[in-house]
Design goal:
CATH topology: Ferritin
CATH architecture: Up-down Bundle
Protein name: Ferritin
Structural class: mainly alpha
CATH superfamily: Ferritin, core subunit, four-helix bundle
Subcellular location: Cytoplasm
InterPro entries: Ferritin, Ferritin-like, Ferritin-like_diiron, Ferritin-like_SF, Ferritin_DPS_dom, Ferritin_prok
Number of helices: 5
Domain Ferritin-like diiron: 1-144
Binding site for Fe cation: 16, 49, 52, 93, 126
Helix content: over 70%
Bound molecules: MU-OXO-diiron
Number of strands: 0
């Protein structure tokens, strides 16, 4: 495996692990603040990020690289509002998308079409997750401070069908 690309993939393992820990922390916050639907949503997101991480670990090791499992800093847990929770979600997804785009760029620079091909799954995944984060944040902006709106948002969050414009 090209060393520069291996380094970038290992960095991506860290970002996916951080996202998984962040979403688990957000699930906890939602759980203890009475938002059980939001908690379920973020428990699931956390699991998905762990899958993203493991997929990278296996890929690196299968291609004769060495995957490095990183230490993770304590994720943020000082949220005040649902809005802050979902702003953090969108920021996190946008950051991950930027890092993935950078890997794609570097793959092309190094003519590493193998990794480029592997990363297409992440590109599609990010489009979907960013669309979800943006849609949910837009809904919360409409709801504003309305408590009954928050109640309905929490009740319905796991039933929303998010349209992915890329599909
Ligand atoms: Fe795997 Fe949503 O970043």
């Amino acid at each position: 495996m090209i060393p520069e690309i291996e380094k970038l993939l290992n960095e991506q393992i860290t970002y996916e692990a951080k996202a998984s820990a962040q979403y688990l922390s957000m699930a906890c916050w939602a759980d203890v603040n009475g938002y059980n639907g939001v908690a379920d949503f973020f428990y699931t997101q956390s699991e998905e990020e762990r899958v993203h991480m493991t997929k990278l670990v296996k890929f690196i090791n299968e291609r004769s690289g060495i995957a490095v499992i990183p230490a993770i800093d304590k994720p943020r847990d000082d949220f005040k509002t649902l809005m802050e929770l979902f702003e953090t979600f969108l920021d996190s997804e946008e950051f991950v998308t930027a890092r993935i785009n950078n890997i794609i760029y570097e793959c092309l620079q190094h003519k590493d079409y193998n990794v480029h091909n592997f990363m297409q799954w992440y590109v599609a995944e990010q489009l979907e997750e960013e669309a979800t984060a943006r849609t949910l944040l837009d809904k919360l902006k409409i709801i504003g401070d309305d408590k009954s709106g928050h109640y309905l948002f929490d009740r319905d969050i796991n039933t929303f069908q998010i349209e992915d414009s890329a599909k």
